Amino acid sequence: MKSAVAVVDAYGQAVQDVIARAEAAYENSTATYRRLVAAMAESGGTLPPDQTDELVAACQFLGVAPDRLAEDAAAVAEANRLNREIEEVQQRNTARLAPLPGLQAAHEAAQIEWLRVSEECQRQMKTAEDDAIAKRRAYESLLNSRNESTARRESDLLHIRDRNPHLFGPVSRDTLKHTLATRARYVR
Prior knowledge:
single chain; mainly alpha; 7 helices
């Protein structure tokens, strides 16, 4: 004898299964889109045929128009460029300040020497004092110099991320739909 099935419960479970599959397909398509747009940006707009097919399928699933795909690839390329420039500026700033500990140590050593020789004679004290002053000036000159700013590049990168949230993190369907409906102008 066959047992009875709770139809409403079975139907509810079927609906939940469809929703879960749709959510998984959406998440998979957005992840695929981001990954392949990033690859496309790195390669200058080209992809191997199998990746092209995969990207086209993701675009069709998400409703991404060809001109939006081009804008997204350009935005990712620009974001990558800005990230590289920020890293280069930070490396230059770090390299520029590298002599500070040595200059500070030299200044401290010069002060110690100045105190030692001051007891021996006034002439030696004057020579060492001049050396300490010169090293202190070099230290303070470098210490008081300004770092190269990354503020504009960081602002440009934030602007790109704000205008293209679907490229840099999880987004809801509503956010993606709104982003895709609003054609973002590419601003450097």
